[in-house]
Structure formats: structure tokens, C-alpha cells
Amino acid sequence: MNEKENKDQLPTGLRRQKKELKEYIEKRDFSKTKEPKSGKQSTIDGKQIYCIQKHNASHLHWDLRLEFDGVLKSWAIPKEPPRIKGIKRLAIQTEDHPLNYANFEGEIPEGQYGGGKVEIWDKGIFTLVERKKDIIVIDIKAKKLNGEYCLIKTNYGSKPEKKLVILQKIRLISNISLISNRPFNFTKPI
Ligand code: MN
Hints:
By secondary structure, the chain is mostly beta strands. The protein has one domain (3-175).
């Protein structure tokens, strides 16, 4: 079997995952870091994974990860994520991570991409409540973050590679004015 045939026989989900993890794989030297190289099955059967890792890299930040389309969509949050309703946090989209990254804790060696200590700060599941053009609403079930949160696209910053959103704990879905019925696109710049 040649490589092309082999590729064509991969299930659509896996093929997409391979493409989406390209940036993640290119940024890392897996002979030096213990971070997982590829994604496996969801660690929590039939539920979408939610995880936040506290990452003491060159700047301390929190990495929000949500399972969508077979990978962990990821955002870096410069301040501790909000547990109280109404508090907003800026979140900067980063490269997609493999699903089993949600289990990763440890020290990324100095000099490697993201060098520093990673610890799981919070972990659980979420369900999608609304997915619109500029807003997604999710219901998180975990220890630290619990309840409905929204991710709102912002107009901050002019660089297309900076995909900024606001993470906020919300009271009621009806408090948000939903802009259109087009699906929320994670990767397309604002
Ligand atoms: Mn990080």
C-alpha cells in the first residue's frame, strides 16, 4: 500500500486531526519534551473534554483547552480564569493540541517551546449550549470552573494571527445578543 492509499483510508476525523496538529508538532522536539505527540481517544467517554493547565513559562498563564472536532482547541489566558459571574478574561487562541494533552503535567525543558512547569489547574467536561458566529456558550462541569461560560470574539488587535476572545462566566444565555446564525469559526481571524 503506498502512502497516498494509506492516507485516503484514514477516517475523516483522523485525517483532519493530523492536519490540525501540524503546527503543534512542528513547534516541538519530541526527543526533548515529554508532551504527547499525537491525540488518542477522548479520555472521558462520550463527553467533550475541558481542561485548564497552569503554565509557568516565560510568563505565567493559564491554557484553556476545549475538545472540538477531534482536537483540543486552545487559548492562553494571561490572568487566572474567572470563577465569579461577570468577570472577563482575555484569551488568545493558540495552536490545536492533541486530546491526550489534557492529561499532561510536567516540566517542559528550558529552551524548548513553552519551557516551564505545566500543571493541571482544572479538568472536567463541557457541553455546547450555543455556537454562533462570534460567540460560543458552553456549560462546564468541573471543580474550579462550573456553570455556563461564553467565549466572545473581540475586535482587539489588528494582527490576524492574534485570535482574541473574551472568556466570561455568564448568568443567562438570553443576556447575550446573538449576532447571526452562522457557525462560530475558531480559526478564521476576525
Ligand atoms: Mn501555555
